[in-house]
Amino acid sequence: MELLQVGAQAPDFEFTDTDGKRKRLSDLRGRPVVVYFYPKDNTPGCTTEACGFRDSMQAYESRGVKVIGISVDSEESHRKFREKFGLNFPLVPDPEKRIVSAYGVLGDRSAKRITYIIGPDGKVAYVYGKVSPKDHPAEVLEKLRELGFAT
C-alpha cells in the first residue's frame, strides 16, 4: 500500500468527537486537521505519542487545528485508553481496517505510525512517514507553522 501523496484529497471518514457528536472529516473543512495513525492503544510508543498530543492540545486548539488519532483497536479499547490517560481529542476505531487501508497505512495487523496534515481545503498538505513518538507533537506544530496553517 502506498501512502497518500501531498495534494491528494484526504479520504473522508466518520468519527465521534470528544463531545459525543458524530462528525465526518469533511465537516472540518476550513481548518487544518492532524490525522495520526498509531499501532495499538496502551503500548509504550503509542501512549507517549498520545500523551504528547494531549499535553499540546491547547497549542493546537488555539491555532484552530483539530487532532484525530486512528488505530485498528475497538471503541472499547479507545474508551479505556482515553480515560486512563485523560486524552482530550478523538480516537477513531477502525477494526474493519477501512480507514487505514484508504490512507495506505495498514501494516501486517495494525496501522503503521504515520501522520497526515490535512489542509483547510481537505487535501493532504504533509506526510510524516517516520515518526518519533516523543517529539512528534511538537514537530507537527512546527510544520503547521511552516505550512502557514498555524501562527
TrEMBL record:
Give the InterPro entries listed for this entry.
AhpC/TSA, Peroxiredoxin_AhpC-typ, Peroxiredoxin_BCP/PrxQ, Thioredoxin-like_sf, Thioredoxin_domain
Q: Name one GO biological process term.
A: cellular response to oxidative stress
**What Enzyme Commission number(s) appear in the record?**
1.11.1.24
CDD domains linked to this entry = PRX_BCP (cd03017)
Listed under catalytic activity are:
a hydroperoxide + [thioredoxin]-dithiol = an alcohol + [thioredoxin]-disulfide + H2O
UniProt enzyme class = oxidoreductase
Asked if the Swiss-Prot or TrEMBL record annotates the protein with the keyword Nucleotidyltransferase, the reply is: no
A GO term from the CC aspect: cytoplasm
What residues make up the catalytic site? C46
Start and end of every Thioredoxin domain? 4-149
GO terms (molecular function) for this protein are:
thioredoxin peroxidase activity
Q: Which Gene3D superfamilies match?
A: Glutaredoxin (3.40.30.10)
* UniProt KW keywords: Antioxidant, Disulfide bond, Oxidoreductase, Peroxidase, Redox-active center
Q: How does it assemble?
A: Monomer.
Q: To which protein family does this belong?
A: Belongs to the peroxiredoxin family. BCP/PrxQ subfamily.
Protein name per the record: thioredoxin-dependent peroxiredoxin
Q: Which organism is it from?
A: Thermogymnomonas acidicola
Taxonomy of origin reads: Archaea, Methanobacteriati, Thermoplasmatota, Thermoplasmata, Thermoplasmatales
